[in-house]
Amino acid sequence: MTRLLEVDRLRVTYGAVVAVNDVSLAVDSGEVLGLIGPNGAGKSSFIDGLTGGIRRGGSVRFEGASLDGLPPHKVSRRGLVRTFQSVELFGDLTVEENLRLAADRPTGFDLLRDLVVPSRPRGLDDVRWAAAVCGLEDALDAFPSELSHGRRKLAGVARALAMRPRLVLLDEPAAGLDTEESVAFGERLRSLPANGVSALLVDHDMELVLGVCDRITVLDFGSVLATGSPAEIRADQKVIDAYLGGSRAA
Amino acid sequence: MNLVLLFLLLGLGAGGVYALLGLGLVLKYRATQVIDFAHASVAMFSAYVFVNLRSTGRLELPWILLPHEIPIASAGIDVLPALAITLVYGTLLGYVLFLVVYRPLLRAAPLTKVCASVGVMLGLEAIAVLNFGTTSLATGPVLPSVPIRIASVAFPSDRLVLLGIVVAAALALLALYRFTRFGLATRASAENETGAALIGISPTAIATRNWVIASAFAALSGILITPISSLDPTSYTLFVVPALGAALVGRFASFPWTAGAGIALGIFQSEVTLLQAQVPWMPRQGLGDGVPFLLILIAMTVSARRLGVRGDPGTMRNPSLGRPTRPLATSIVCLVLGLIVLVALQGSFRAAFISSLITTCICLSLVLLTGFVGQVSLAQMSFVGFSAFVLSQLGAIAGLPFPIPALLAALTAVPLGVLIGLPALRVRGVSLAVVTLAVAAAMDALVFSNAAFSGGLGGRTIGSPTFFGIDLGIAQGHDYPRVIFGVVVLVVVVLVGYGVARLRTSSTGRVLVAIRSNERAAAFVGVDVARMKLFAFALSSFIAGLAGSLLAYDQGTVSSASFATFTSLTVLAIAYVAGIGRIAGAVIAGLMFASDGLFVSFLDAWLHIGQYQQIVAGVALAFTAIQNQNGVAAELAGEKGLALRIARLRDRILPVRWFGGAAPAPLRTRSTSDVTRTAAAEPAVAVKEEAGARNP
After folding, report:
1. B368 touches A: beta carbon within 8 Å
2. Domain coverage including residue A147
């Protein structure tokens, strides 16, 4: 296994509030890493900082190259793509168009050629694959507003996958999915590494996270509380106190 | 030194009025999220009411056809009663306008509100022109004015009183908002209307009260400026531009900043007047009006945040988009229909049809920019005008075969478009609208009113376009307007329409629409938002520039008045109301709404609306904005809409297998809450079928 993502002391602050406090972690290729923690632990801020959405401290290396100072669109073109907790699909485009946008971006000359002749469809394989992984084949022609919340979340994941990322950052993809959907999603997630996509999964659905992830990192108050295999995390007293609940926690 | 101080004090006059108007704008925006372009129109009307009360004792009513003057005294009345009556009058006028126009739009998209307010502005200005004429009125003092001296500089004391009024007003509003339940309720309902309603605040009632206070401010501003600036409908209406600048500096939120910016603006303009008198090499014109807007532009661009945050007040709800089906076939049908109309119509109607086509071209540039990408430009006529004047100055190049000079002139508008696009990388939504308005005002003052460029009042003449010896011009001897010129315009506009339609369904179009939907998410799926926005601005300004070339050929003489700041507002308003997300919207805007277009010319010929045209247009604009918030074209494209029937007819005449492109596009409609589309995009079908085949 090779090191895919290496985060060194990533720091995100909002004014005086430290949301992410020098978090270091690494993701190997072919791995699904879980990132869990209570609300406000800094998980989404971590993803924001990682992908260049907000100003951050520390350094991030991806496939051996530094991502520091890159704007979001360049980070995602390198193969590090995120999804959103709040879905954020393009409401004026169909699901299929949402995916095609991610799979096929016009380059310099296309901008003018598109004024004259119909564009040659590109990246349809990626679109089909991403839709199949998320079980959205029958929804391609629908608008996001016509889907259930759960399927909209899946469409957001599919859009990220249509870029054929090396690593996908999933920000609470299972929130809003019912139990059955969540189980099915877990199976799909497990199939990603075989397709060359590693994943960093942020979610509150412990069933999903413990079942799917190879390793899990727990955040609390912006700092890493523990890292380990699902079994180790399940047994970790600090994690139980802060997050999982059990003997003392309510 | 003394002169500098004197001009500073004199500048307090205009500055105070900008500040008062700006405060009213902020008040309206905070309470209703309306940027009211008609704010200074209420001030203008109140000024006329005040002046007429003072001179004749008659009360002027805001309508036409009916008697509009009521004598309430046998002779002119004193300042104080006139002031009181006018304040009540202006407040009532604002209240009625709110009830009729703005209240129904409280929950509409911001741009819809802008368009409605442009309608009100046009309407009030037109009524004032009809009732009071366009001659400037000079009037006597309002505030007590005695010469006083500061540091050996003698100046009229009313400027200091005005300054006092502004400071008092800003402080009063600040206190009202900060310390009273009313202010708290306003802030609450601006932040979260539903939340405010849940705890028993009526957002509508709060909005009404704020609007009424703001209208009183407008009336007061109108009265106070009469001794400083001579009164005429247009220049008073235009006071909204510097006031918007001041409000922009205050970010449509801060009363002290707005008041300070307004006063600074007035002082600056006054000092520039002094500089122009003293420094020989300073440009004679435009500097005082132009430079402040450039400063606003730069300040806004530098200070804005780079990437939009979720729920950013700058982002706006979007009107629905069309989905062009079969652009090639549609273009051919339009071309043939256009040719028939060109030959069938005669004389002034043919000329009106050509004007309609050119307006359609301008509106197409907005369909691309505002419709697809969601970037509001209130400077579109500046591109049009710039290109038209460049064409007039091309000299020998202008003699080259036809499309070349027009294309070159249009290309010169592109750098300008990119320049206006730069603030759009940071400024969003309605703030961008105001920034582009500042650009238009700066262009107006610095470029178009520069006689060396625009030829002054006489304008500049443009020779006929030729194509290897063939005269394509609109006139030849007594032959006007010639069909051949109409054909040239028609072909250009159809080509532009075809290109825009093609773009909409292409991969570029997807990216542009994605930016409109969600800039932030687009960046995270690899879209270079800045580059694509600049591309959209460049292309849009090129299309507008092309329209400018056509306009120049059409009119033969171009003068700067055709491209004044407010023409850009009008053009955006008609494009928006006709349906800014659709090509059909641009066509409707050109044919139905353009003031020199076909429909208005018919109306004029049959009903002799002539002088009432602008009032009709203004009222129509305001009410169409209220009625069809997605635009007329969206209404026509609905379940049983006209557009659908036209598309079916087209498919019968030009079957899909001839001009249809890759796959047959099944015609069907589906309506969701905010999206209406007339047919599926062609490639979508292909993918779906393949996907379906793999999963039986």
Report:
1. no
2. 89-164
> Using CA atoms, how far apart are residues B207 and B205, in angstroms rounded to an integer?
5
Q: What pLDDT shows up at residue B50?
A: 93
Contact A101 B527 (CB under 8 A): yes
Residue B604 CB partners (closer than 8 Å, separation 6+): B610, B613
Q: Are B206 and B186 in contact (CB under 8 A)?
A: yes
CATH number (domain holding residue A182): 3.40.50.300
Residue B540 and residue B383: Cα distance in Å, rounded?
Answer: 9
- The whole-angstrom separation of Cα B342 and Cα B197 is 56
Do B404 and B549 contact (CB within 8 A), yes or no? no
CA angle, B599 then B600 then B604, to 5°: 120
Which residue in B524, B535, B542, B669 has the most chain A C-beta atoms within 10 A of its own C-beta, making it the best mutation to test that interface? B524
Residues 6+ positions from A47 with CB-CB distance below 8 Å: A53, A82, A169, A171, A200, A202
Tell me which amino acid residue B132 is. Answer: F
Q: Which of A1-5, A15-19, B151-155, B214-218 is predicted least confidently?
A: B151-155
A179 in any annotated domain: yes
Among A164, A192, A215, identify where a domain stops.
A164
Domain count, chain A: 2
Is residue A122 in a domain? yes
A175 and A207, same domain (yes or no): yes
Q: Are A170 and A158 within one domain? A: no
Nearest Cα to B547, choosing from B530, B533, B567? B567
Q: Are residues A101 and A196 in the same domain?
A: no
Q: In this complex, is the C-beta atom of B692 within 8 Å of any C-beta atom belonging to chain A? A: yes
Cα Rg of chain A (Å, integer) = 18
Judge if A188 and A238 occupy the same domain: yes
A114/B690 touch (CB, cutoff 8 Å), yes or no: no
What's the alpha-carbon Rg for chain B, to the nearest Å? 26
Q: Search chain A and give the residue with CA nearest B308.
A: A53
Residue with tokens 């309605």: B430
* Candidates B529, B675, B688; nearest CB to A140: B688
Considering the domain architecture, whether residues A172 and A225 belong to the same structural domain is answered as yes
CB contacts under 8 A, B 655-674 vs A, are 661-662, 672-674
Residues A65 and A99 in one domain: no
Where among A164, A186, A220 does a domain terminate?
A: A164
- Long-range CB contacts for residues B497-500, cutoff 8 Å, separation at least 24: B497/B331, B497/B334, B497/B360, B497/B364, B497/B583, B497/B586, B497/B587, B498/B327, B498/B328, B498/B331, B499/A115, B499/A116, B500/A115, B500/B364, B500/B367, B500/B368, B500/B543, B500/B583
Enter the pTM of the model.
0.86
Q: Is A84 inside any structural domain?
A: no
A174 & A243 share domain = yes
- On whether the CB atoms of residues B273 and B7 are closer than 8 A, the answer is yes
Residue A223 pairs in a beta bridge with A220
Q: Are A82 and A47 in contact (CB under 8 A)?
A: yes
Per the domain annotation, does A71 fall within a domain?
Answer: yes
Walking along chain B (696 residues) 10 residues at a time, the average pLDDT comes out as: 82 91 93 89 94 88 82 84 93 94 84 84 89 83 78 78 90 88 80 75 86 94 88 87 87 90 90 80 70 74 53 54 84 93 92 95 95 90 94 82 91 92 80 83 84 80 85 84 93 96 90 90 90 94 96 89 84 87 92 88 81 77 78 74 77 71 40 36 38 38
Cβ–Cβ < 8 Å for B48, B132: yes
Say whether both A41 and A103 belong to one domain. no
Task: Report the DSSP beta bridge partners of residue A221.
Answer: none
Q: Which amino acid is at A189?
A: L
Tell me the pLDDT band of A242, cut-offs 50, 70 and 90.
confident
* Mode of pairing for the β-strands spanning A32-36 and A215-220: parallel
